[in-house]
Amino acid sequence: MSGRARAGAPGQIRIVGGTWRSRRIPVPHAPGLRPTPDRVRETLFNWLQGIVVGARCLDLFAGSGALGFEAASRGAGAVTLVERDPRVAAHLRDVVRTLDAAQVAVVNRDAFSFLEQASETYDLVFLDPPFGQDLLPRACRELETRDLLKSGARIYLEAEIALGTPPVPENWEIIRGGSAGEVGYHLAIRH
Fold first, then answer.
1. Closest Cα to residue 190, out of 139, 134, 162, 149?
2. How far apart are CA 32 and CA 160, in angstroms?
3. What is the DSSP letter of 130?
């Protein structure tokens, strides 16, 4: 979840680029919240130049909403933030109102329950699930088997660096990767 935190994590994230560049967004205090660091988001969105504007985006384990709000700030056409914790989802709705982010929708639901009923297809998906629960491979499989990705879709994957390169479906290709501290992050494309 873009937002699961280390002990002592700051109570705010900063939007790195776009319309809301340098805006600070509060991060609620919730167990495990770990916002994707600024420099990782900056690297990711450099990789995504030319992809984000007008894109339909899904932040499946939203947490702080850092990735979804960054995409919206940079011109995404529609962003869906899925967050299972009702308190955190309510906080994300407050941020949507504060930013007047009409293109951002918050869904208070378990990620897999959301995928079971989803009917949209996405250009860009952010997968940053809670660590230590082996949710990333399952999320990849569900997105693919439920045909929720457009051809050429980009998928951001974040996991513990100790896990190495995450396994992805056959028709996905990891095209970029990096690490920051104990976090490994990768960008895949769906062919």
1. 149
2. 14
3. P
What confidence tens digit (pLDDT) does each residue in 148-173 have? 999 999 999 999 999 999 999 999 99
β-strand 56-59 against 122-127: which pairing, if any? parallel
Question: Angle 91-6-158 (CA atoms, 0-180°, nearest 5)?
Answer: 85
Answer yes or no: pTM beyond 0.90: yes
| Cα angle value 104/50/152 (rounded, 5°) | 85
Tokens of 74: 């940079």
Q: How far apart are CA 183 and CA 163, in angstroms?
A: 9
**φ, ψ for residue 41 (rounded to 5)?**
-60, -40
- Domains of the chain, by residue range, sit at 12-190
- How far is the C-alpha of 32 from the C-alpha of 6, rounded, in Å? 7
> From CA 102, how far away is CA 78, in angstroms rounded?
9
pLDDT value of residue 32? 75
Domain 12-190 adopts which CATH fold? Rossmann fold (3.40.50)
